[in-house]
Each structure stands twice: as structure tokens, then as C-alpha cells.
């Protein structure tokens, strides 16, 4: 039976990781900070933490995907209404109704985007809480990107999404009202 890549054969133990190259000891405190401090969680609790952390990470990705889908669907609805208005010009009252409908859809899109952003924030808080009990190496790896930097990126993207919905809504509503004249 052939060995699968990444898995040791049944008769040989797994290869240990190579030790890190020793740094010149500037002082004893630096040497101690490089030592692995394992999590104090028991195996079952650690497995639960990992499961919850993975679920929170998947929830964040799902919420981000849904935010982009809301933008895509809003764009498709707006463009479809414009195409219909150009192909078969609306009467003035119908154009006002369609414009009002698009404003309603735009407000709904903004609310859904904000709800999804709030959900992402809650999941990030959950991940930070869970990561506090991981090993020092895991915590250090997770802290490579400062929280402030991540928050700035998230809120800039949120602002761009919201501005897109508002600007597209205003432009299309004005276009629909002009078509109805």
C-alpha cells in the first residue's frame, strides 16, 4: 500500500519539527519569550474552542459573501428597472412608483449590509475571546495584524458599499423620474 503524501507510513513515527535556530542571547528574557507556552485547556475543551473558532471564521466569510451578494442583487434590480423603463417608457405615475420601489429596495439593502457587518463584528469578538486561551504562538500569530488595522479596512469597505447603494439609488431614481416625463 502506497504512502499518502503528508502522512507517515504506519511503521515509522512522524518526523519531528526541526528546532529553531538559536538566536544570540541578548538577555534571558528574550530567550524565555520564544518558548512555547501551551494552552492550559484540556483536550476536549481545546477541541471545542477550535470548533467554535472555525465556525466563527466561517460565519465571517459567509457574512462578507452575503454583503457582496446584496450589492450584486441591488445592482441587477436597478439595471433591470432602467432597462424596462428604456424599452417601454413608464407613465409618470408608474415611474414614480418604480422609483419609490427602488428607494425601498435600497433602504432594505443598506439595512441588510449593516446587519451583516454587525454580525461580523460579533464573530470577530468571539474569535478574540476564544484565541485568548490558545498557546502563546497561536496568539502571537493572530496578533500580527493589529485590530485597529482590521477595523479600518472593514469600515472603509462598509462605507464604500453603503455609498455605492446610495449613489446608485439616487442616480437611478432620477433617471426613472426623467424617463417618466
Description:
The radius of gyration is 27 Å and the shape is elongated. The protein is mainly α. The termini are far apart. The protein is 72% helix and 0% strand. Helix 2 (43-87) runs antiparallel to helix 3 (92-131) and helix 3 (92-131) packs antiparallel against helix 5. Residues 4-8 have low confidence and may be disordered.
Radius of gyration based on Cα positions: 27 Å
Q: If you average the pLDDT, what whole number results?
A: 83
What percentage of the residues does DSSP assign to strands (E)?
under 5%
Roughly how many Å apart are the termini? 77 Å
Number of strands: 0
Main sheet properties: none
Low-confidence stretches: 4-8
Instruction: Give the % helix.
Output: over 70%
The ordered string of helix (H) and strand (E) elements is: HHHHH
The rough form would be described as elongated
* Helix count, DSSP H or I runs of 4 or more residues: 5
Secondary structure class reads: mainly alpha
Could you list some keywords that capture this structure?
mainly alpha; 5 helices; 181 residues
Please specify the SSE layout and strand pairing.
Layout: H1 28-33, H2 43-87, H3 92-131, H4 136-142, H5 147-179
Helix pairs in contact: 2-3, 2-5, 3-5
Amino acid at each position: 500500500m502506497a504512502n499518502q503524501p503528508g502522512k507517515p507510513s504506519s511503521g515509522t513515527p512522524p518526523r519531528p519539527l526541526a528546532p529553531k535556530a538559536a538566536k544570540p542571547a541578548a538577555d534571558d528574557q528574550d530567550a524565555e519569550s520564544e518558548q512555547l507556552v501551551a494552552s492550559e485547556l484540556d483536550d476536549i475543551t481545546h477541541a471545542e474552542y477550535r470548533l467554535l473558532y472555525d465556525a466563527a471564521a466561517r460565519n465571517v466569510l459567509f457574512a462578507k459573501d452575503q454583503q457582496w451578494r446584496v450589492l450584486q442583487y441591488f445592482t441587477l434590480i436597478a439595471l433591470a428597472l432602467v432597462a424596462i423603463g428604456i424599452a417601454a417608457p413608464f407613465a409618470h405615475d408608474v415611474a414614480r412608483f418604480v422609483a419609490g420601489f427602488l428607494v425601498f429596495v435600497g433602504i432594505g439593502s443598506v439595512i441588510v449590509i449593516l446587519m451583516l457587518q454587525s454580525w461580523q463584528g460579533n464573530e470577530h469578538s468571539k474569535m478574540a475571546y476564544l484565541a485568548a486561551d490558545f498557546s502563546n504562538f497561536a496568539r502571537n500569530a493572530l496578533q500580527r495584524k493589529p485590530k485597529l488595522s482590521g477595523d479600518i479596512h472593514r469600515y472603509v469597505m462598509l462605507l464604500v458599499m453603503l455609498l455605492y447603494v446610495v449613489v446608485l439609488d439616487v442616480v437611478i431614481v432620477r433617471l426613472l423620474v426623467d424617463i417618466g416625463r
